[in-house]
Every structure is written in C-alpha cells, then in structure tokens.
Design brief:
By secondary structure, this protein is α/β, with parallel strands linked by helices. It folds into two domains: 118 residues, Rossmann fold, CATH 3.40.50; 244 residues, no CATH class. It is 42% helix and 18% strand. It contains 16 helices and 13 strands. The strands form three sheets. Strands 8-9-10-11-13-12 form a six-stranded mixed beta sheet. It has a five-stranded parallel beta sheet with strand order 2-3-4-1-5, with helices on both faces. Helix 3 packs across helix 4, helix 7 packs across helix 13 and helix 11 crosses helix 12. The model has no long low-confidence stretch (mean pLDDT 91).
Length: 382
Amino acid sequence: MIIREAQRKISQMAEKFPVILLTGPRQSGKTTLCKNLFSNYKYVSLENPDNLEFAESDPKGFLRIYDKFVIIDEAQKCPSLFSYIQQIVDDSNISGQYILTGSQNFLLLEKITQSLAGRVYIMELLPFSQQEVVSKSWIEAVVKGGYPRIYDKEISPQDYFPNYIETYIERDVRSILRVQDLSVFRKFIYMLAHHVGQLINFNHISKELGVDVKTVQRWLSVLEASYIVFTLKPWHKNFAKRLVKTPKLYFYDSGIVAFLLGIESEEKLLTSSYKGALFENFAFTEILKTYKNNGLKHSFYFWRDSNGNEIDCVIERGNRVKFIEMKASETIKSEYIQSLHYLDNSDHNLEITHYLFNTINETQHRTNETIVSWRDVGVLIE
C-alpha cells in the first residue's frame, strides 16, 4: 500500500476539527485514504442510490445511524445533511466526528462554508505525487500521470484514460452543464489540451467551437471546479512594466493531457513539440500536490510582461516570494538563470528565492538559486 503524503496533516486536523472534508478529483484515492486512516470508522457512500434516498428523505434518521466517527463518501450529493451535522457537532464537541469526501468542488464548498464554517478543515487530495510513487524517469511520470488505479492495477495509460474521460469528464461534467452536442464539448476538452501551458485565448476557442465566449468560460469554470483543469493568474505587482493579464491553463494530471494530445508513449513525448509544455504542467502539479499535502495555503501565479519576459511560477506568502522556472532540460543554460533574476532589482521589499525546476536527477544548491530535480519538489517548501 502506498502511503499518502497528506496522511500526517489529515490526522493532525482530525484531532482539532469536528469535521474533515477531503475533496479532489474523482479516482484520486480519497476513499482509500479515508478507509485506511480511519479504519475503525463507519463508512457510507452516497453514490449508493439507497443510501442517498435515505439521507435525502430522512436526514435525522440517517444521522442517528451515522452519528459519529463516520466516513460519508460523495457527501456533496446530499448538501442538506450539512446543517444537521452542524447541530450534532455543536452539541457533542467531539474532534474528528465526521470525515466527508467529495469530488465536485462547485457543489460542495458553497454548502460546506454556509453550514460548517469554523467547524470543518478542508483538504484537497490530488493524484499521486513523485513523493509517493517513484517513476523511472520524468518521461514516464508525465505520460502515466498520478491516478492511483494506474499504479494499483498496473493499467496502461492507453487503457485507463479513455474510460476516465468518458466516465468522469464527459458524463459528470456534461450532465451538470446539460450540453446537448457531445461532439462540441469533446472538441472543447481536446482544444484545452492544445492550450496547455499557454495564455487562454477565449475568442479563438469560441470561434473554433462555434459557441459564444460566455459558454466557453462557463464550461471552463466547471472543468476547474471538477479538478480537471486549473488556471494560473498573472502576478500583478507593479514593476512599471506592461503586464500580461490573461490567465494560463494547466491540467491537474499530466497523463490526461498527454493522452488528449495523442502522446501514448515515452518515445512520442521526447519528440513532441509539447514536451516543454507537458513538463511545465507536470512540474506545476507536483508543486501543487506538495503544498496541498502539507496543508500549505500559499498563492500561485505566473509573471509576464508584454516584451515576453516571464517567470513561470511565482509562489507568494506575505513578502516572501519564490520565483521558479521550469525547463525540460538537463542543461542549465545561462538564460534560464537570468530570467529567474529579472525582477531582483525592483524595490518592493520582497524576500526572493530562486529555483530552476528541471530534469536532472539530483538537486543542486547554488549560491543564488537552487536547481531542483524533478524527483525532489519537496525542497520548495523548505
């Protein structure tokens, strides 16, 4: 069994909060983690129609059975439970009383924050990181992605991702959006893959699909809330430059986007024009996983001006800022280092550290920057 990096933080918070909410993509391992970590708890899944009908029709009766030390899986399917849970935990004052999981962020967080504010600790669980599974190479890590079933059942990405896309992306998201023409929505998903690591051109996507810009934005927002894609906003510190204000697009799993791009083998990745963008996507998700697994609530951005000067990733916490470049190369070129230090002389009272995330196998600590191995993203939270 693979030990999840998030276990330590979840265990700590279950001793402090009456309710733990574990959210994230479908099939990211939420249920398995909860069952392993809270093995003495009752378990009930609202994916089961009988359980869901019971919870919806008689929430008090449902919670008399599942009153404490219980895992409620896919809790977002019955948001009316949250108000009743609030009353129970307020009366009992017991830590770790309810462990909730949910995979659809847009249905879950609004109701949770309305009913359980101050009583719930929210943790996002993404697919496996390289701190949890050790790939033979960065190329294998990118193509396989991190979904646990690929590793647990030794399923090839070519067999896993078509089913995942059809079952969880097209069915779940399409049902929420009520998209009538599946072919247009499927084309939209594939177009997003071709925009990975790029600024999002809503007008271009709109024209290609034959739908209006607002529809494209609405579809994208639901894919974001479903943990399929995420957008990175530009960092808008005033450096007296003409700054780009359009967000960039990434996928939560590099394996999905590699599959959508037709990159089904490690050999294809090495010769693909998307190699750099896919490595950048992989690097970003590794950073996100490490921060989220440790319960760190930092803000993530990119920086670019109209002249093309760019810093791939900016991690901000107060006046402490990390600048990170991501390059699919073992060669440390001088221009990579120079771009990291582009904003160093700006007078903004910032404490800046510099990192180059690349494909070397061992991290190098230098005087003015750290060269981070693809295997060693944990150094970014030191």
